[in-house]
Amino acid sequence: MKVVVADYEFPNLNPDKEALKDLAGLELVDAKCTNEDELIAACADTDGLLNQYNYITPRVIDSMKKCKVISTYGIGVDKINVEAATKKGIYVCNSPEYNEYEVCDHTIMLILALSRQMVQLDRAIHNGVYGVMKIDNRLYRPYGQTVGFVGFGRIAKQIAEKLKMFGMKSICYDPFQSAEQCAAAGAEKMELDDVMKQADFVSINVSLTDKTRHMIGAHEIGLMKPTAYIVNCGRGAIIDESAMVKALQEKRIYGAALDTFEVEPIKPGHPLLALDNVITTPHSAWNTQESMYSMQYVAARQVALVLQGQKPVHCVNYDAVQEVLKG
């Protein structure tokens, strides 16, 4: 069995090797691909593919002669053309539970850092400016403030639960959750416009799809309180970045804390990096030693399951592929 690792930024592939060790005659290829042509050359005869940052396009998928499964390191499958893979009978898998606590904790850290203007105060001291009254924004205690979740899945529910310790209220927009389900997890379900109007912190917690791309645009941002913040540990393209930059530059919202961006890595000189009301981290919300091991192991385990003729645990197109294979 041949399994290609298209790319990765981990220290090693030991967790992958552990997950794949029972595959007979395993050939694990560290391909280090950086573009479509390199992917096509590396994956022509692979049985399975592991991928982190490359875009697995229809052209790449069409070139694969016998691939049965593509698994991504992480939750989002937006870099894989799922439709093309499905048509070819290829399972698309992910590792959704690798960050059991990390993204939740990172989001809360950013909310508190914004609330206390932690980064701005640190920058002021480094620039020789001392005193809490020297920063632009007034500080408001987290107690009694409202966090509005755009998407209310597993991670958002974890955040809402932990925010109770700070006396913060949760509201949410999620068309896939009932009002009862949201209430059971501690949030009041609302329409998106109402969440944007009422939230002191807007937390982005939806997956990136064609329908969710730019779902937070100029209209939605325009509904926000002038003292409200945006926090994004989801996907950068959920937000219309240009509209957000304009609102931040014009001080129509208080600020933002962003772990993800429309184009990654964010380029030096990007307007967001010139703003003193923005906190940025480099898509690192997921990253701990524990989550890194889990991400690799779980993604590779899905490949092993498929190649051993078993049902993968985490597959976004299992039923659709089953129909293709039957027909």
Automatic annotation (TrEMBL):
Keyword NAD attributed: yes
Domain D-isomer specific 2-hydroxyacid dehydrogenase NAD-binding, residue spans: 108-285
InterPro entries registered for this protein in UniProt: CtBP, D-2-hydroxyacid_DH, D-isomer_2_OHA_DH_cat_dom, D-isomer_DH_CS, D-isomer_DH_NAD-bd, NAD(P)-bd_dom_sf
Chain ranges of the D-isomer specific 2-hydroxyacid dehydrogenase catalytic domain: 16-317
Gene3D superfamilies: NAD(P)-binding Rossmann-like Domain (3.40.50.720)
Keyword NAD belongs to the record: yes
Coiled coil: none
Single GO MF descriptor: transcription corepressor activity
EC number: 1.1.1.81
UniProt keywords, alphabetically: NAD, Oxidoreductase, Pyruvate
Family: Belongs to the D-isomer specific 2-hydroxyacid dehydrogenase family.
Protein name per its UniProtKB record: Hydroxypyruvate reductase
